[in-house]
């Protein structure tokens, strides 16, 4: 079997996609956005609740999609919970570099880099980068005012 | 896997298609995305090159040598399409940039000018977006009503349901000849008979059907029939609309520009006769010549044997995937072409397609521009393997093997 495939569909990814963390709607959300990939019909909805200090107190997602998009959303929710908005944005920028195969540089802290590294295999599959980035773009859109996101 | 014998000499045919010899990711290419676009035989590519190298100029306008040559080739291409569709007259063939434009042309020039709010377009849930969205535009702009005919759980069309959908306000029945997802083949001759009995004209989307079935627009007595070049082993950017001369005669122009006029003054314009009236601007000349060469190529094949070969490939694949209890085929109509669409338990179509791809097997994953149909079957996407006559039983085996691997990785 192709190593790049094993790298893409490693156990952590499959586990996140089969047992997504923070899955479901959130009544008390302060920020919500929907993302849609018109090419494959995949959808994701991100709910955020910001605390009084402006940090991400809670985050949940709903959606249907491929293993990559679901795992990416699940991992994202796990990682941004409790973070400040600034930290969340840093994570997003670093993640986008990572899955596009670009230099990540100093944008990610070593421990964050290590956790996100499970998604790095996506960079060998240019057609699938949009699957990995949909949830992150949607979260960003929710934080910036909630316009619908299209990932093409 | 049992060996299936067909008369069709597939090994020899494969030599005609240079791309089939290439590898992807170090594995032999197994191209099963033919319903999206077919590969081109060398003769088509060579003809386009030789035409552009030796005969090319703009058509219909010049008096010079090359313009005459190019015009002959372009009009010759029209005659070739006429033969392929068995139309009565070349003037009934309008070149378009593809199937989509041909349907939009009928919507804009045949239906829209006389459409009254509440008039109906009848269509089936298995139409491609190209045979849905032009009618939605009429709904939005002119108040047309879309009436949908469902398919059964096996993807077959219920002709009585079709009959029932056609009412006194129906302006057109727009129906595919072969679903690009289910593979379902519709009995056009019978359908036209039923629609005509109620005075309703019929447009058939032949983009898939013309590739796998014989076409005879006169025998069917059909009003409009649409093909696209690139699925017929020809180039992209060219397609054709067949329309009965009587319809074309009273249709208003589609786009305005050069080529489609008789006379233009400051105050008025008069239009050319069909088909020129519907071909504004410089047409895709090289592509038309390429399409004609593709149709000529097809005419040299034993098409009956080719179609039987495709069906044998499909049947082999259909039988083989019965072993996979995690796989659900969508589209099992008794009359269907060589398209295998399916869903896999716990495996998204895009993940399946990615894993197949890395084994050299090119399939399509997604909604296939048929979201109404996806809704009907309660899904958002399927994986689709679609066969052409140049595919082999080894391709089917590669598909089945790759699916088993996908299960291993994702299962």
Present the secondary structure layout.
The complex is a heterodimer of chains A (152) and B (411).
Chain A lengths: L2 H6 L2 H8 L12 E7 L4 E9 L5 E9 L2 H14 L4 H15 L10 H7 L12 H15 L5 E2 L2
Chain B lengths: L9 H5 L8 E2 L2 E2 L1 E2 L10 H13 L10 H21 L7 E4 L2 H13 L8 E5 L8 H10 L2 E5 L9 H7 L4 E7 L11 H10 L4 E4 L3 H4 L4 H4 L3 E5 L10 E5 L1 H6 L10 E4 L4 E3 L13 H15 L3 H18 L6 E3 L9 E6 L4 H9 L3 E2 L1 E3 L4 H6 L5 E5 L6 H18 L1
Parallel strand pairs in B: 3-15, 5-6, 5-7, 7-8, 8-9
Antiparallel strand pairs in B: 1-2, 4-10, 9-10, 11-12, 13-14, 14-17, 16-17
Characterise this structure:
The complex is a heterodimer of chains A (152) and B (411). Chain A is α+β, with helices and mostly antiparallel strands and 152 residues long. Chain A is 43% helix and 18% strand. Chain A has one domain (3-144): Sufe protein. Chain: A (Alpha-Beta Complex). Chain A has helices at 3-8, 11-18, 67-80, 85-99, 110-116, 129-143, and strands at 31-37, 42-50, 56-64, 149-150. Chain A has a 4-stranded mixed β-sheet, covered by helices on one side. In chain A, a hairpin with a 5-residue loop joins strand 2 and strand 3. The N and C termini of chain A lie far apart (29 Å). By secondary structure, chain B is α/β, with parallel strands linked by helices. Chain B folds into 2 domains: 10-31 and 302-410, Aspartate Aminotransferase, domain 1; 45-299, Aspartate Aminotransferase, domain 2.
């Amino acid at each position: 079997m192709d190593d790049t495939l094993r790298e893409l569909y490693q156990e952590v990814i499959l586990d996140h996609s089969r047992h997504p963390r923070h899955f479901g709607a959130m009544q008390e959300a302060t920020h919500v956005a929907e993302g849609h990939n018109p090419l494959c019909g995949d959808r994701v909805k991100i709910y955020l609740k910001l605390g009084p200090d402006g940090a991400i107190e809670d985050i949940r997602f709903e959606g249907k999609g491929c293993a990559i998009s679901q795992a990416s959303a699940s991992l994202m929710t796990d990682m941004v919970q409790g973070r400040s908005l600034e930290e969340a944005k840093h994570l997003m920028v670093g993640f986008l570099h990572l899955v596009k195969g670009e230099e990540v540089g100093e944008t990610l802290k070593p421990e964050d880099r290590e956790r996100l590294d499970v998604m790095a295999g996506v960079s060998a599959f240019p057609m699938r980068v949009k699957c990995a980035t949909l949830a992150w773009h949607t979260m960003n859109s929710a934080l910036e005012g909630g316009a619908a996101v299209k990932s093409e | 896997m049992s060996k299936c014998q067909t008369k069709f000499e597939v090994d020899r045919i494969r030599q005609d298609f240079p791309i089939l010899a290439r590898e992807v990711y170090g594995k032999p290419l197994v191209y099963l995305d033919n319903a999206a676009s077919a590969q081109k035989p060398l003769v088509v590519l060579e003809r386009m090159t030789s035409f552009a190298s030796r005969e090319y100029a703009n058509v219909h306008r010049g008096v010079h040598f090359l313009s005459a040559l190019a015009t002959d080739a372009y009009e010759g291409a029209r005659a070739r399409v006429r033969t392929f569709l068995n139309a009565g007259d070349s003037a009934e063939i309008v070149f378009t940039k593809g199937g989509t434009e041909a349907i939009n042309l009928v919507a804009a020039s045949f239906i829209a000018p006389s459409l009254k709010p509440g008039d109906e377009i009848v269509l089936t849930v298995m139409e491609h977006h190209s045979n849905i969205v032009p009618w939605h535009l009429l709904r939005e702009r002119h108040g047309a009503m879309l009436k949908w005919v469902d398919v059964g759980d096996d993807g077959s069309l219920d002709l009585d349901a079709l009959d029932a959908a056609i009412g006194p306000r129906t302006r057109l029945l727009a129906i595919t000849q072969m679903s690009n997802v289910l593979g379902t083949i519709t009995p056009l001759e019978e359908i036209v008979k039923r629609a005509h009995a109620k005075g309703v004209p019929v447009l058939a989307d032949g983009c898939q059907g013309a590739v796998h079935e014989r076409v005879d627009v006169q025998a069917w007595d059909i009003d409009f029939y649409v093909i696209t070049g690139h699925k017929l082993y020809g180039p992209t950017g060219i397609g054709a609309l067949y329309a009965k001369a009587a319809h074309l005669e009273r249709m208003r122009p589609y786009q305005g520009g050069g080529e489609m006029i008789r006379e233009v003054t400051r105050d008025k314009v008069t239009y050319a006769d069909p088909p020129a009236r519907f071909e504004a601007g410089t047409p895709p000349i090289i592509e038309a010549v390429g399409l004609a060469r593709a149709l000529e190529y097809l005419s040299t094949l034993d098409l009956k044997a080719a179609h039987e070969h495709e069906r044998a490939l499909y049947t082999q694949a259909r039988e083989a995937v019965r072993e996979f209890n995690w796989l659900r085929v969508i589209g099992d109509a008794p009359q269907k072409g060589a398209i295998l669409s399916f869903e896999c338990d716990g495996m998204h179509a895009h993940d399946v397609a990615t894993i197949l791809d890395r084994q050299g097997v090119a399939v399509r994953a997604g909604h296939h521009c048929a979201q109404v149909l996806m809704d009907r079957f309660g899904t958002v996407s399927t994986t689709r393997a679609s066969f052409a006559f140049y595919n082999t039983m080894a391709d089917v085996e590669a598909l089945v093997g790759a699916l088993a691997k996908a299960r291993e990785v994702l299962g």
